[in-house]
């Protein structure tokens, strides 16, 4: 059993934001953990306990997800010799990686275009339909969302994009648009640990759906923004994977070890996520939600959007273990209860995460 290590690089300063149009990226700025976010008020009725950020049960869930992503039967952390040097080289390479477009992807060009159309009250349904139909994956995501339990109002299936727009509304369109546009940046070339990219993408989607559900239930900020920052958590892992694999390729014939990737993701993955969010000019509330995870605040101390991100990521990981490993829905419900969620909220989050099936 292992525990999450304190992130050595801390929280990246909000001053690291640069204008995207100037094609600059956020800097990697080590700092001390941020101060706690405002403590939630008593009106947050879902809190039934005062759990820690990570318990033994939560740690085990994330361990199982790492085993799944890397396709290994067991994880040990006895990292010595050349592999330990890889970790040092990756940490040293991270600042420059943040300025490398091959490593740190910029916000996809299609995302703001589509979101502008969705957010523009003058946009017509016909215009949106034409935009969406230009991308088969996007059209499929929109239809799948319109037929989900949350939106579906009749027994008949929604079979056209035009009808899906009516069912979803502009608000409901934003999350499937973001997912379809972001999916390509999760792809990795074949080679080592080929399950990592698709598994990470699946987990990110499930976590995003659960985080969005929490935001809707508890009015914890903009549901779409919460969905997007949960997707960025997976993207941070992908970037760390790329940087680590590059160092292995530069080291000669040294065979990559899953433990090295996992240790680096645990130590620095959230800092990378924070850098990406700053680079993509996410809102201050979004950055603060990631900061709360970096500071490992207890859920009860988190602001609403940070709670949505925390519980969304946990629910997404739990559903991954349900689907791909021999764990049960009852176990998922129990862990979410231990972490402070009431019955209706934990059931809703798990259902949202499962609906990608």
Question: What features would you describe in this structure?
Answer:
The protein is mostly helical and 357 residues long. The chain has a domain at 43-104 and 193-219 and 230-272 and 310-357. It has helices spanning 56-70, 81-97, 110-119, 125-133, 136-146, 161-182, 196-218, 223-249, 258-279, 284-294, 304-324, 329-338, 343-354. The relative contact order is 0.18.
In short:
With 357 residues, the protein is an all-alpha fold. It contains 13 helices and no strands.
Describe this protein with a few key phrases.
357 residues, mainly alpha, 13 helices, globular, disordered N terminus
Anisotropy-based shape:
globular
How many beta-strand segments? 0
Number of helices: 13
Main sheet makeup:
none
Euclidean distance between termini CA atoms: 30 Å
Approximate helicity band: 55-70%
**Share in β-strands:** under 5%
Gyration radius (Cα, Å) is: 20 Å
User: Are there runs of 5+ residues with pLDDT below 50, and where?
Assistant: 1-48
* Overall mean pLDDT: 81
Strand/helix succession: HHHHHHHHHHHHH
Category by helix and strand content? mainly alpha
Write the layout of secondary structure elements.
Layout: H1 56-70, H2 81-97, H3 110-119, H4 125-133, H5 136-146, H6 161-182, H7 196-218, H8 223-249, H9 258-279, H10 284-294, H11 304-324, H12 329-338, H13 343-354
